[in-house]
Design goal:
Chain A: It is a multi-pass membrane protein. The structure holds two protein chains of two kinds. By secondary structure, chain A is mainly alpha-helical. Helices cover 77% and strands 0% of the residues of chain A. By secondary structure, chain B is α/β, with parallel strands linked by helices. The chains are: A mainly alpha, B alpha/beta.
């Protein structure tokens, strides 16, 4: 062993590194919000939606949950231009993340909806609430509260999965690590540093989601989460 | 097999004598009627094997062309990039036509003919891209394979307003160009040949060179007659377009004017 560690080496390209962190945050901020929104819509469509929509959403969920994220990403970025749909790498990355998170969170949220007691819906009906009002005020809040920890985990998984977006030249954190490693060949230091940053980002994201859960559902949600 | 010792000694003496008495390599080739050439078999489009195990490629065609011009038969000797120079030094072959580039280390041990094929890194793009130097890349987006020589060079010479999109490997770079995600790519002319082979809507043309190391034919030192003969054949085939036709056939691009 004659490897000399140089833990300052990954900081040779500070601009690339900082941009990488910011782009990763940007990806999960947009992808996370839109993805969960798609998931809520999907869960509504599969449980309350019009009959014709249900098989379509089921097909979407099965398609996305049973194929690799990397292939979905490549299809959007390299494949779609073949039929004239040209989108940039950032848009492709966000779109792939939204589609992916949408499918997974749809199933998670649907589980929460299934766990809402039938009696609550009937109570809403007896108050002459519309179906939409019942979904928004009676079903969705307790459903989200129940599955919030699982949903948070899925968002973190998607953020970590965004590392593969480096493959289509999105300049996020994994790209920065690869870039630095490719220049100074300091694999150990570069990937150790990016691991540490991903860890911090993941912990930070979990804390943020827990705070959001607290705001939305009050303290009990946080207790369930821990 | 058992040979009487005297026969072995005689045979050894004969080989020794013949090699010391050789006039020059060119004469030997003409006398034996066979030109032995070291060619690659694992480096398309310069040299590879077909599905029925026949060698094919630019280097094979150039070797065949040179043998034809010398009026002798060709004998192809498959080599790797590591053993091609030793094959020549030990006279197992007369020439190396194996995408060999000139460099000072190699020039110490073997001689080189004039260039016969282009081998370079450069920026490629469709005819609609008006780029002829690194400065013209201002405001444009160029695809490149991360960490490749082109990436390192381009990062140095491209203006600050140019965007460099770095893909994981050559396939990523090729796909990005073919799908129109980038209009320009910085890569080797061999990769460009692979793109051209896919018949893209926008055929990549060479915009400018980043690093140039054209292929030359390698031969042993102190063989001036053979060197002159090879150079004469190259000059003639460049003039009458035969070499250019091979370049277009295998690399998809005509020979550069200054080759």
């Amino acid at each position: 062993m004659s490897y000399h560690f140089d833990f300052l080496a990954p900081f040779d390209y500070p601009a690339v590194l900082i941009k990488g962190v910011l782009v990763t945050i940007e990806l999960i901020a947009i992808g996370g919000v839109l993805g969960v929104a798609v998931g809520i819509f999907g869960a509504w469509a599969r449980t309350q939606g019009p009959r014709w929509l249900r098989p379509l959403v089921s097909a979407y969920v099965e398609l996305i949950r049973n194929t690799p994220f990397l292939i979905q990403l490549f299809f959007i970025f390299f494949g779609l231009p073949g039929i004239g749909l040209q989108i940039g790498e950032m848009e492709a990355a966000v779109l792939a993340m939204v589609i992916n998170l949408g499918a997974y969170s749809c199933e998670i949220i649907r589980a929460g909806i299934a766990a809402v007691a039938r009696g609550q819906v009937e109570a809403g009906l007896s108050l002459a609430m519309t179906r939409m009002q019942i979904f928004r005020h009676v079903i969705l809040p307790p459903a989200l509260q129940k599955i919030w920890p699982a949903l948070s985990s899925q968002v973190v998984i998607v953020m970590l999965g965004s590392a593969v977006c480096s493959q289509i030249a999105v300049e996020e954190l994994a790209y920065a690590a690869n870039f630095i490693q490719g220049r100074n060949f300091r694999s150990f230091e570069s990937y150790l540093l990016s691991t540490a940053i991903y860890l911090l980002l993941a912990i930070g994201l979990r804390q943020l989601l827990r705070l959001i859960g607290d705001r939305l559902f009050g303290r009990p949600a946080a207790k369930e989460a821990t | 097999m058992k040979f009487p010792k005297i026969l072995l000694a005689l045979a050894a003496a004969a080989t020794l004598f013949s090699s010391t008495a050789r006039a020059d390599a060119l004469e030997d080739i003409v006398k034996s009627g066979v030109l032995k050439v070291a060619v690659p078999q694992d480096f398309p489009p310069f040299g590879s094997v077909t599905s029925d195990l026949k060698p094919q490629g630019l280097d094979i065609d150039v070797a065949t062309l040179i043998a034809k011009k010398m009026g002798v038969k060709i004998e192809l000797v498959p080599v790797t990039s590591a053993n091609r120079v030793p094959y020549l030094q030990t006279k197992k072959v007369d020439l190396i036509i194996s995408s060999l580039g000139k460099n000072p280390e190699r020039e110490k041990v073997i001689a080189f003919s004039d260039a016969y094929a282009p081998f370079y890194n450069g920026v490629f793009g469709g005819a609609d891209q008006k780029v002829s130097s690194a400065a013209d890349l201002a405001g444009k987006t160029v695809g490149v394979t991360r960490g490749a020589v082109e990436d390192l060079e381009l990062t140095k010479i491209a203006p600050a307003s140019a965007t460099i999109k770095r893909y994981e490997d050559n396939n990523g770079t090729i796909s990005a160009f073919l799908s129109g995600q980038v209009q320009l790519v910085a890569t080797g002319n061999v990769v460009a040949a692979a793109i051209i082979a896919k018949h893209p809507p926008k055929k990549p043309e060479t915009k400018f060179l980043i690093k140039n190391s054209p292929c030359s034919i390698g031969l042993n030192k102190d063989e001036p007659k053979l060197l002159d003969k090879v150079n004469a054949i190259l000059a003639q085939t460049k003039k009458d377009g035969e070499l250019n036709a091979l370049s277009v056939k295998w690399l998809g691009l005509p020979l550069p004017a200054n080759l």
